[in-house]
Amino acid sequence: MTTTNPNLKKLFVSDTFADMIKNKLMKKMEAHQASNPQKELYIMAWGDTTQPLAPKVVDALVDAATKLGDRSTYTGYGEFDGNIKLREAICNNYYKPRGIDLKPEEIFVSDGAQSGTFGLQDLFGLDNVIALQDPIYPPYLEANLLAGRSNIIYLECNDHNNFVPDIPTSKVDIIYLCFPNNPTGGVATKEQLKAFVDYARSHKSVIIFDAVYSAFITDPNIPKSIYEIEGATECAIEVGSFSKTAGFSGLRLGWSVVPCALTLESTVAGELNEMFRIGQSIRFWGASNLAQQGGIAALSEQCQQECQEIVNYYLENARILKEGLEAFGLTCFGGTNNPYIWVKGAEGMSSWDVFNQLLFKAGIVGVPGSLFGPSGEGFLRLSTLCSRENIEKAIDFAAVVGNRE
Ligand code: PLP
C-alpha cells in the first residue's frame, strides 16, 4: 500500500495559516463586500509589495532577457549555490558596509527566503528542541511540523517586552528570530540580540535569523544583520531576501548564509556549510538566471539608492497609517523600521473582534493576530506595503467614522 506523509496529513486536517486566510478571512471579506457593494475596501492584509521595480533593475532584466534570446549570449543552468557575481555582491555590497566579513562560499542563493528557510530543515535532526517567537511568521512552525518535529517551545512577545522575547529559560537547540518582525512590527536592539547570541554560544544552539525586512531599519542603532553581533557567525544562520527590499516578491530571489565558523557539539568548523551545500545540490538547480541578474543590479551602489526610495515610500505609508489610526483612538505598535502595524484591540476584544471592527467601520482589512500564534490574540496585523492612495483613503474614512461616534 502506498502511504502518505503523516505529518502533511496532520497539517492538512488542522488549520494552516493559508487555510485560515482562504477559508475564513477571505470569506468574511467577500461577505462584507457582497452586503455593502457601495463601500470600498482598503486591503492591508497581504505582506506583498505593490510598487514597481527600480528602473536599474528593470534595465538589467531587459538586458538579461535579451541575452537569453541570442544564441551567442544564451546561458542555461548556472551554479546551484548561485551566480558567483551575485554572491560576491551580497558579501561586498550588503554585508561588508556593515562591517561583516563573509565569503561567497558561505552564501547560498535561493528563490526567496521561504524556500531558503525551508531548505535549512535538511540540516537538523528531528529530535531538536525548537524555540519560536510567539506570534510567529507561520511557515516556520508549519515547516517544522511538516518535517516531523514536535519539541517546540514558544517565546512570548507582547507589549510588555516590546515584542522582543526573553532568552529561553531551558536548553533549546534551534531558535528562530525574525527582526524587523513580521507580524508584530518589533525590532531588536544590539543588546537584545547579543543576549541571544551569548545564549546560543554557551548552549551550542543555532539561531536562524530572518532579516527579510532589514532595509526598513532606518535607526542606525538597530542591527540589520545578526552578524553585527560579535560571535554570531559561530552560532547563527541568516536568511535574506530581495522581496521586500527590492520588490522581488514575484521575481523571487533570496539567500541563506551558513557560515564556515558555525559549529554544533556534533560538527567541526565548515561541516555544516558543506552539509548545506550537498543538500542544496540535491534539492535545487539554482535560482532563475534572470532574477539573479536583477539581484546583482539591485545591489549596485546606484540602484541600492533607488531600492531604498521604494522602501521609504512604504515607511511613509506606515507613518501616515499609524498616526491616522492613533488619532482614531487605536493603540498601534510597529510601523517604524518596519512595514507592519500591530493594532491592539480594546480590553476584552479578540483578534477577530478587531478585524470586524476595522472592516465594518472603516473598510480596512487586516489579518487577525491570533493566526500568528496564541500571543497574537487581541491584535490585528496591517501591512503598509500597499499604495499610498489605499492608505490615505482608509485614513480619511476611518477619521469620518471616528468623528461620527
Ligand atoms: N520571512 C518573513 C518574515 C516574511 O514575512 C516573508 C514573506 O512575507 C518571507 C520570509 C518570505 O520571503 P520570500 O519572498 O523571500 O520568500
From TrEMBL:
<comment type="pathway">
    <text>Amino-acid biosynthesis; L-lysine biosynthesis via DAP pathway; LL-2,6-diaminopimelate from (S)-tetrahydrodipicolinate (aminotransferase route): step 1/1.</text>
</comment>
<protein>
    <recommendedName>
        <fullName>Aminotransferase</fullName>
        <ecNumber>2.6.1.-</ecNumber>
    </recommendedName>
</protein>
<dbReference type="InterPro" id="IPR015424">
    <property type="entry name" value="PyrdxlP-dep_Trfase"/>
</dbReference>
<dbReference type="InterPro" id="IPR015421">
    <property type="entry name" value="PyrdxlP-dep_Trfase_major"/>
</dbReference>
<comment type="similarity">
    <text>Belongs to the class-I pyridoxal-phosphate-dependent aminotransferase family.</text>
</comment>
<keyword id="KW-0032">Aminotransferase</keyword>
<dbReference type="InterPro" id="IPR019942">
    <property type="entry name" value="DapL/ALD1"/>
</dbReference>
<dbReference type="Pfam" id="PF00155">
    <property type="entry name" value="Aminotran_1_2"/>
</dbReference>
<dbReference type="GO" id="GO:0009089">
    <property type="term" value="P:lysine biosynthetic process via diaminopimelate"/>
</dbReference>
<feature type="domain" description="Aminotransferase class I/classII large">
    <location>
        <begin position="57"/>
        <end position="396"/>
    </location>
</feature>
<dbReference type="GO" id="GO:0030170">
    <property type="term" value="F:pyridoxal phosphate binding"/>
</dbReference>
<dbReference type="GO" id="GO:0010285">
    <property type="term" value="F:L,L-diaminopimelate aminotransferase activity"/>
</dbReference>
<dbReference type="InterPro" id="IPR004838">
    <property type="entry name" value="NHTrfase_class1_PyrdxlP-BS"/>
</dbReference>
<keyword id="KW-0808">Transferase</keyword>
<dbReference type="InterPro" id="IPR004839">
    <property type="entry name" value="Aminotransferase_I/II_large"/>
</dbReference>
<dbReference type="InterPro" id="IPR015422">
    <property type="entry name" value="PyrdxlP-dep_Trfase_small"/>
</dbReference>
<keyword id="KW-0663">Pyridoxal phosphate</keyword>
